[in-house]
Amino acid sequence: MARAYNFAPGPAALPESVLKQAQADMLEWGSAGASIVEMSHRGPEFMEVATRAEADLRTLLGVPDDYAVLFLPGGATTAQALLPLNFASQGDTVDYVVTGHWGKTALKQLTPAVSVNIAASGEADGYRTIPARESWRLTPGAAYVHITANETIHGVEYRPAWGEPAPDTGNVPLFADFSSSIASEPIDISRYGVIYAGAQKNLGPVGISVVIVRRELLERAGQPRADIFNYSSQLANDSMLNTPPTWNWYVAGLVFRWMLDEGGTVEFNRRSDEKAALLYGAIDGSGGFYRNDIDTAVRSRMNVPFFLADEARNAAFLDGAREAGLIGLKGHRVLGGMRASIYNAMPVDGVRSLVAYMQDFQKTHG
Ligand code: PMP
C-alpha cells in the first residue's frame, strides 16, 4: 500500500515533504560527516536548528516578546503535572474547566499541595457542549484557570460561535492545553498566561512539547521541585538543562517551516474551515446513517468523532476504509465509533476522499 490518508489522532500524519527531508538528513547533516541525531546538542549545527525552530514558531504563532518558548521532553501530560508545580504555591486554588477526557487527565496530574476548584464541567452533558462562560464558578485570586482548547477524544473546541475562543478570566491567567489545535488558526497569545502542546498532532513527532509562557509568571515561586522540573531554569538554559530530544526538535522545526511556507495559520484556518465543513456536512447530510452529537457551536475542527447508526457495521467500515487508503479512523476506546483527526498535515483532498468513501459505504450498506 502506498502512503494512505492517515486520520490518526496522534502520533499523527506529518507532511510528506517533511518526512522526505528528515529521511535525507538522517544519514548525514550537510557535510558534517554525521547525522543531526548523532551530534551534540551544544554543537553549532544543532544550536542553529534549535534557534531557527524557535524563531519560526514565534513567527508562525505571533508569539510576543514578553513570552518565553520552551521545548521540553515529554508530552502534554508532563506539562499538566509541571504547571501547578511552577505556578501555584502551597495552599493556592487552581480553577479547572473540564470539557472532556483530557481536561480530566489534567486534574489527575495536580499536586495535593494545591486545592482544585472545578469551575465548570461538561460531564453531565456527556461532554457534548462547553458550559457557557457565565456559568463558570471561578475563584477570585486563583493561581490560574486551566482549559483544554480542543478535546481530542470528545471533539469539542472553543470556537467563536460559543462566545469567544479565549474565555475572559479577568486578572487570573488563562492556561490552555492546545495539544490538538495549536497552529490551526491565528490566536491572540496575549490572552493566555500559558499555552502548551505535545508535538505529535500539529507540530511534529511525539517526545517533545512546546510551552509558551508569559515571562512574568516565571517569577512565581511555585512548589518545591527538582531543578529539571523548573521552567525558569529551563529557560535560563535554553531548554537544555539536560540532553534534549534533538531529533524531535529538528523534525518539529521542519514542520514549522512547512507551515510557514504553506501560508501560516491564516491559511490553515481557511483549510480547517473547509475540511470541517466537508466532513460535518457529510455526516449531517447522511440522513442519520452517520451521527455526530456535538453542539454545533463547539464542534472541533480537528477531531471529528462520528458513529454509524448500525454499530455492527463498524468493522466493515474500517476494513473498507483501509482498502480505500484511509487509515486511523477507529474511535478512541472511551467513546467507540469512529474519529477522523484532520490536523494541518491532512490535505483537503484527504477529507474529500473520506467523504466519498463514506457516501459509497452508505450506498452499499444503507
Ligand atoms: N491533552 C490533549 C488535548 C491531548 O490530545 C493529549 C494526547 N492525545 C494529551 C493532553 C496527552 O498528551 P501526551 O500523551 O503527550 O502526554
Automatic annotation (TrEMBL):
It is an enzyme of class 2 (transferase). Its main location: cytoplasm. Binds 1 pyridoxal phosphate per subunit. Pathway: Amino-acid biosynthesis; L-serine biosynthesis; L-serine from 3-phospho-D-glycerate: step 2/3; Cofactor biosynthesis; pyridoxine 5'-phosphate biosynthesis; pyridoxine 5'-phosphate from D-erythrose 4-phosphate: step 3/5. Its EC number is 2.6.1.52. It holds the Pfam family Aminotran_5. The modification N6-(pyridoxal phosphate)lysine is found at residue 201. Residues 5-353 form the Aminotransferase class V domain. Keywords: Amino-acid biosynthesis, Aminotransferase, Cytoplasm, Pyridoxal phosphate, Pyridoxine biosynthesis, Serine biosynthesis, Transferase. Catalyzes the reversible conversion of 3-phosphohydroxypyruvate to phosphoserine and of 3-hydroxy-2-oxo-4-phosphonooxybutanoate to phosphohydroxythreonine. Homodimer. PANTHER family: PHOSPHOSERINE AMINOTRANSFERASE (PTHR43247:SF1). This is Phosphoserine aminotransferase. It comes from Luteimonas terrae.
